[in-house]
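Archive maintenance. Older records in this collection stored only the sequence; we are now back-filling the structure field for every entry so that each record is complete. The fields below show one back-filled record exactly as it appears after the update. Entries are processed alphabetically, and Diacylglyceryl transferase is next in the queue.

ARCHIVE ENTRY
Title: Diacylglyceryl transferase
Organism field: Taibaiella lutea
Length field: 426
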Amino acid sequence: MFPDFHYLFQSLFGIDIPGLAIVKTFGFFVAMGFLFGAWVISKELQRKKEQGLFQPEIITEEIGKPATSSELIGMGILGFLLGFKLIGMFLNSAAVGHDPMGFILSMKGSWITGIVLAAVFVYWKYSSKKKQQLPQPKQQRVAVYPHHRVADIIFIAAIGGFAGAKIFNAFETWQDFIADPIGNLFSASGLTFYGGLIVATIALYLYARKKKFDFRHLCDAAAPALILAYGIGRLGCQTAGDGDWGIFNSAYTTQPDGSMVKSSYQDYQAMVTKYPNQFMDRNLNQITPNKYASGPSWLPDWIFAQNFKHNVNNDGIKIAGDEGEYNHVLPAGVFPTSLYEAVACILLFFVMWRVRKRFGRPLQMFGLYLIIAGIERFLIELMRVNYKYNWGFLHPTQAEIISTCLVIAGLGLLFFYKPKEKTETV
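Back-filled structure field:
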């Protein structure tokens, strides 16, 4: 696995650049997911605007004014933070690489670059406003459509999504959360997608209502972006080895050097006996389930199992002779469910992109997304370990409950929802 770009470049190109450790692969893929998602939703919002499905918000702008004190102060603060923290991270890359989040939340940084960049930002804002300054400032009315607000939409989705993902993950891994609430809240791992989806949807509904544009068409525009961003984000989970893997595949065990080999079920049981704590789920207080599934010789083993060597959480057993920061590996192979989800969701994005113009009512596209996402996650849950609720003869996981609800809601939107007003083709 590649917990950061230092490991990635060292493994792929044989180049040892310790400073690259500050760039974490999980964060990189999450950022890529947001960027590609923003591009997709922007294209869809523009298409819907051309169809007349959105009415603009008319705002009044005053142009030709010099920079205000609040604008200069704001740019100064932004420049200082970027110089103090971001450039400070590169200047102290050897130390920061071990704990970037700890560095960001600390008082450590580069004061000199912070002050210099603050001055640069203030001067840039002042000079740019000076060039546009008019003898007499004037007001103009501007039509603002939803595709002009993509940056705001993505920002709200990111904040709401992260908060929701952390909250729902805390309920899924309650024992870990109680043991270290602050560490769990601010760690890069431990994100529950459905929690993020629910909270982000509520936040965007309130935003759309405030800006007076049709939330239903925003949902349809966001549907293909959501499935794509989720798939790309899952590549980050897979690459970093953030713990979002499946149950053990007892056909594969780990050697002392960290390599994974095909084994008998007896070999797997021997590993369970040797490392009992590694096969115990802390939240469920039970031995993690396993399934024996040996892949055919003509297919690579990593499709069926991976032991996530050098995983970002340092889960598992120590690799013999490895004194690096990420020097642990799982004692046996697990099903790489994050890889399965990444491939499935990226392929499903192309399907949704192809059929997006075929629906005649608002929320049908979003309904299709809910069905696809719900079924995909429900199937993946069959290979993952999660807390199960005790409902008599039913023992569903949190994700299975939400998946079922999403599929039902999606079917309702796709086949039965009929808006009161007549709407043009979406």
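Update note: The mean pLDDT is 85. The longest strand covers residues 57-63.
Entry marked complete.
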